[in-house]
Amino acid sequence: MDTFLRDLKQSLRTFRQSPSFTITALAALAFGIGANIAIFSVVNAVLFKPLPYPDPQNLVLMMTQSPQGSGGACSPAKFIHYRAQTDVVQDVSAFSSTVMNFTGGDVPQQILAGRVSIDYFRLVGAPVSLGRSFTKEEDLPNGPKAVVLSHALWSKRFAGSPDIIGKTIPLSGDPYTVVGVMDQSFDVSEFGAPPDAWIAFQLDPLSTDQGHYFRAAGRLVPGVTVDQAKARLKASTADFRAKYARGLAPEQSFTVERFGEVLVRDVKETLLVLMGAVFFVLLIACVNVANLLLVRATGRRREIAIRFALGASRGRVIRQLLTESVLLSLIGGALGLLLGMFAIKALLAINTAGLPRIGENGGVVDVDWRVVIFTVAASIVTGIVFGLIPALQGSRADLGLALKEGGRTGTGGRGNRVRSVLVVTEIALALVLLVGSALLIRTSIALRAVDAGFDASNVLTMRMSLTGERFLKSSAVDQVIRDGVDRLQRLPGVEVASATCCVPLEGGYGLPFTIVGRPITGEGPYHGGGGWLTISPGYFEVFEIPVKRGRTFNDRDIAGGQAVAVINEAMAKQFWKDADPLADRIAIGRGVMKEFSGEPDRQIIGVVSDVRDGGLNNDPQPTMYIPQAQVPDAVNALNVRITPIAWVLRTRVNVNSLTGAIQKELREATGLPVSEVRSMDEVVSRSISRERFNMLVMTIFGGAALLLAAIGIYGLMSYSVEQRTQEIGIRLALGAAHGDVRKMIVFQGMRLAIIGVVVGVGCAFGLARFIASFLFGVKAWDPLVFISIPVLLTLVALFAVWRPAAKASRLDPMSALRTE
Q1: pLDDT at position 301 over 90
Q2: Dihedral of the alpha carbons of 368, 372, 374, 378, in degrees to the nearest 10
Q3: Bridge partners of 460?
Q4: Which of 170, 237, 251, 782 is most open to solvent, judged by the fewest CB atoms within 10 Å of its CB?
């Protein structure tokens, strides 16, 4: 320990004596380690941090497995089946969310309500601090309307009064009895906006409905593994299919997956790629610091020789040098921890990329023991890795030769070779990162250029909840929409207005259909399936979706009139290849659930252009549009319970200038509040936020790698010129032209750069194949990227080499020869 403490003191003294070296090395290490800490903090928050539920590893989602993957959407019939598998799962619960109107205050307010079945609170270990959760009777169809308030809503709206239990509050026009208040410790904000209240799901325990509009989760029975539960659920598929012929496709089966794994399934690969990319940045930083230490070790050869002369062993010298590098790395790690946490919070404040478990502005990304352990481990390993080669190299000093040298030392062939290899390595790593970031930049550009099928400019959207007894009938919803549209279109600056269930790029419904009179030749009872949207007249005009054939809806398409539908081109091409869709009728959703039993045969009256509802990077899918006025009452009651309607408007002026006036008109027309007010430009931007996040992070890393590589080759060539001053002076004295000296230095530097570029191109091909699934509109081996990036890096290397070469060519021969 005494020896170790002396080594620490000596290291600190050495750092103080070389401030420029210390600052440069710490800056490189702080950036490299800090970048790793930033990304690891996100990876930790998303992938490694346990779910905030009891026994989270045994919490599972009930899934439907198919050759295309597994999906978690659940129907009432499936939920009843899952709940019966008591030998492998327990506390099976249904859950979804809806928007309700709280009208008990001075101003109507929209609240987010969690719709959950009776076992939900036990499943997630939700602590009720006041009152109780739901009873069995309250979770039955037409049972008492009960509500459990969140601690936040209770504190804000009801001043935290304990007398709230048993009182009735108005939610969407219906009286709900407050039966409980959730404890403040129950925080699910990392999964999205936390509910303001919870209401009972009230699913029919005898339901045969096959509509998928919620999810189901459960807990493994003690002693049961995930694999055992999967096998049991898969075996139960036959029983379900025998009972419900239309409930599952022939290739589908039941399974379970851990909740945490499903939650991060779509982002896990992305985060691991970013983690690999930022590790490359750390390697480049380490290479730079290793080069600095090699140069420094060369300058300390006389000091090390004196240590040997005084009796120090080679192992003792290596230990001293490693102590210096590890201490330097630990200090850099401490600085990197501060830099990393600041950087990731700033980055997530710009774009959270829709990452699960990341709160607004990165609020859930914090420093826990995993991040601290990662920082310490990364610092120690980094210190050993970048310090080992310089320590071994520096401890090989020739005692007699070193003691004969004056202040200036020779270059040492082995040392130069090692430094050259390190420079080649960092150039290759930099090229790999630059290729990756260029491919992602091209992906982002391609997504922005893709034709979404609609015009997002000057379009405003907002949501309004129509839950409650008042809107169970379709006519009531249609009247509200007509009144609202009439008020909106009289506003100066509003060009056209409409309403819909589903805004493009924000998800929607899907239903099967049959073509009336056409025999079914394939498997299953339907001809096909597609997206299903309820809209009011003016929808296609708001989004400027072109009509290809026929017509769209107008005010004459009302209840009691001919039932009609409009389809998109993708549906027409897939199901009417050699026929006229306008000559046919379709039946939508019959047999899926009882609400669609009264669905009429609908005449197809028009075909419109495709819209990329499923995302800009996905091909348009078959889609059916239905006039809101003709939605059956039972279907309407289901719709308003599941999701709020969306008002959509096209304006002649900037949409933000009309936001206040539009909300005022809708409140006066309907008496209800609106929420989620945003432009379609924002919706489009949000839909590609993950791709932009990937591009932004990789661009930062690529730029840093380019800068570090330039610094590395510049440092190597500057040191080489400094060490070869006498040689260059002799060359000039013997008649060498200044241009020849410059060419010699440039050639030596560019030879290393070209080798690094060639090696990097080979490695970049491997990276391109790995990230191919993240790309859109660009090939993994894009010629533009694989030509421009090597050229760019070569030019940067030339710029970095040119200055030392120019300095060498300007040396005065006599001054150079007098150099020690």
Answers
A1: no
A2: 160
A3: 649, 679
A4: 251
99, 196 contact by CB (below 8 A): no
C-beta separation of 323 from 11 below 8 A: yes
pLDDT digits (tens, 9 = 90+) for 375-409: 888 889 888 877 777 777 666 655 555 455 544 44
Least reliable range by pLDDT among 130-144, 348-362, 474-488: 348-362
Measured distance CA(372)–CA(384) in Å, rounded: 18
Q: Please report, in angstroms and rounded to a whole number, the separation of the first and last CA atoms in the chain.
A: 41
Structure tokens at 269: 């690969």
Here the tokens at position 37 are 């800490």
Instruction: Provide the strand spans (E) within 187-230.
Output: 197-200, 214-220
Q: What is the DSSP string of 582-615?
A: GG-EEEESTTT-GGGTTPPPEEEEEEE----TT-
Rounded to whole angstroms, how far apart are CA atoms 85 and 82?
A: 6
Comparing 23-37, 348-362, 712-726, the range with the smallest average pLDDT is 348-362
Print the SS3 string covering 56-86. Answer: HHHEEEEEEEECCEEECEECHHHHHHHHCCC
- DSSP assignment letter at 672: -
| Residue given tokens 């049991």 in the structure block | 232
- Tell me how far apart the alpha carbons of residues 406 and 395 are, in angstroms, rounded to a whole number: 19
Which secondary-structure segment (H or E) carries 531? strand 528-535
Q: 471-490 pLDDT, tens per residue?
A: 999 999 999 999 999 999 99
C-alpha–C-alpha distance, residues 150 and 199, integer Å = 11
The token pair at 159 is 């001043």
Q: Among all chains, which residue has been given the structure tokens 């039955």?
A: 140
Span of 78-87, 419-428, 575-584, 803-812 with lowest mean pLDDT: 803-812
Helices 689-723/783-809 angle, 10° precision:
30
CA 113 to each of CA 101, 119, 465, 470, 690: distance values in angstroms, whole numbers, following the listed order: 10, 17, 11, 18, 27
Lowest-confidence range among 279-283, 338-342, 405-409, 643-647?
405-409
The token pair at 572 is 């027409």
Closest C-alpha to 205, from 90, 97, 73, 92: 92
- Cα–Cα nearest to 789, from 420, 428, 488: 428
Work out the widest C-alpha separation in the chain, in whole angstroms.
107
> What type of residue sits at position 707?
L
pLDDT averaged over every residue in the chain: 87
Rounded-to-integer distance, Cα 661 and Cα 4, Å: 72
Q: Which of 25-34, 59-68, 325-334, 360-369 has the lowest mean pLDDT?
A: 360-369
The total of other beta-carbon atoms located within 10 Å of residue 615's CB is 15
In b/e form, how buried is each residue of 275-296, taking b as 16+ CB within 10 angstroms?
ebbbbbbbbbbbbbbbbbbbbb
Length of the chain: 820
Query: Does 132 score more than 90 pLDDT?
Result: yes
Classified as helix, coil or strand, 221 is coil
> Is 0.90 topped by the overall pTM?
no
Q: What is the DSSP string of 649-668?
A: EEESS-GGGGHHHHHHHHHH
